Amino acid sequence: MADDGATPESTLTVLLAMGANAAIGVLKLLAGLFTGSAAMLAEAAHSAADTATEALLLTGLRRSSRPADRRHPFGYGKDRYFWALLAAVSIFVSGGVFAIVEGIRAIASGESEQTLAWVAYAVLGLSFLLEGTSWVQAVRQVRSEARAEGVTVRQWLRTTDDPTVVSVLYEDSAALVGLLLAFAGVGLHQLTGSGVWDGIASLLIGLLLTGVAYLLGNTNKGLLIGRQAAPRLVRSIRDFLAGHDGVSAVVDLLTMMVGTDQVLLCARLDLDDALTASEVERMCARLERELRAEFAELDEIFLEPVPREDPDVRARVLGRYGTAPVDHTAPGDHPAPADGTA
Questions:
Q1: pTM for the complete prediction?
Q2: Same-domain pairing of 263 and 130
């Protein structure tokens, strides 16, 4: 089975983020109670949501590494996507909603009392340093992963099958922006004497969290439904099969990510008509061994010999890709069959 992706670096990234958020959350809560700042209370909820998120991500890392069994023959790799989806919901429910409600309350009441503003500034400054440390670790890992796959950071974030590091990166980025918003809210409240600014900052923090929750939720939804493998991998597999002796054409190629660094492959191949039944069997077995040796991500491989002119297969391929296959992520995301049947 392919590597489950639960690398020590991923675990370190999540643990560092969880520790930082837990400590920061306590400080923000105390600062919010001392100063009466709605923005600080919103940030405390933000940190609480992030801490809960990291706990859910750690649960996903642990559970997704279980080996395949009779009940789940394709393994538990998608467990990580499920817990990452719960983490996104956690951000919205425990962080975004609270911050929005607190912001609306502060704006509606027009409260102007603010005490010990310096406490809020000190906590925000310390929080920025701690969040920044966690953010730097997440960025370092994302850049390392993108470099290893030979793609840009943006492309890696769009196509990766590991939601753990992506979640931490987005959360930490939102946390840094939220701290700046809270600082602006506290500062404008102190300068103008109006609590409306504090409320606006809290409202913006809530909207920021809602946006991040939607982004992460949508990403994990796609992974749970079953997304195609990275375009670069799909192209490489197609070229490998098309250039193999005995393969006349790659009629159809289906891939699905069943976990981090775990890809299910189903290839329908038009083989040389001169091959006997026993030669076809031996060739399929040899192809599977060579595919596993060439592509470590492949977890389960299914090879099906079919004639390229089969009308049912042609209809299914045409229905899936259309006459001009559309690229949804990057060149080659939905490659046309090698013989051009689609």
A1: 0.72
A2: no
